[in-house]
Amino acid sequence: MNKKWTMGFLSLTTAFALVACNDQQGDQKKGEQAKTTEQQNTNSDHMNMDHSSSGEVPTGLQEAKNPTFIIGSKAIMHTNHMPGMEGAKATIVGAYDTTVYAVSYKPTDGGKEVKNHKWVIQQEIKDADNKKFIKGDEVTIEADHMKGMKGAKGTIESSKDTTVYMVDYTPTTGGKEMKNHKWVTEDELAEE
User: Fold this and answer.
1) Burial code of 156-191, b = ≥16 C-beta within 10 A, e = fewer?
2) Which residues 6+ apart lie within 8 Å of 25 measured at CB?
3) What is the Cα–Cα distance from 67 to 96, expressed in whole angstroms?
4) DSSP string spanning 144-157?
5) What is the model's pLDDT at position 32?
6) Neighbours of 120 (CB within 10 A)
7) Full-model pTM
């Protein structure tokens, strides 16, 4: 009789352990799915946009005197501003010395807030002149990199003085080549 009770008890304990284990795996999968969905939502504003530009540069932007990557050279991008950038091969089409800013802003077309957009340069901020902005400063963005950006009110998240590059690249996720993409910083590029 004791053997039957012991066997029954062990069987029941094993069943409970298996159910609990499956529940934990299910919770873990749900957490991973939620994280993936959050990443997709964060990038969704960037995914469906053509980030090519005319190649025009803002008034007052100075060409870099001694850039690490010269015009016409190739580099590998190590940044994820948008899907398909990380690891993509880029051709340098412009190099400029300036101050770059990461900004959060509410698009003028009513879209959801864009957080920590990289990059807007000094010459793309209204009435910036030579004023250096710091974290928390409110600005008006003159850049037109994305729909609803030009004229948007933004908040500076970070800044740095560096060389910025305009690049042509084909996303690693496939699709057509992006022409004159603005901007990639020097530390986001590596030699091919």
Assistant:
1) bbebeebbbbbbbbebeeeeeebbbbbbbbbebbee
2) none
3) 8
4) -SSTT-TT-EEEEE
5) 41
6) 28
7) 0.73
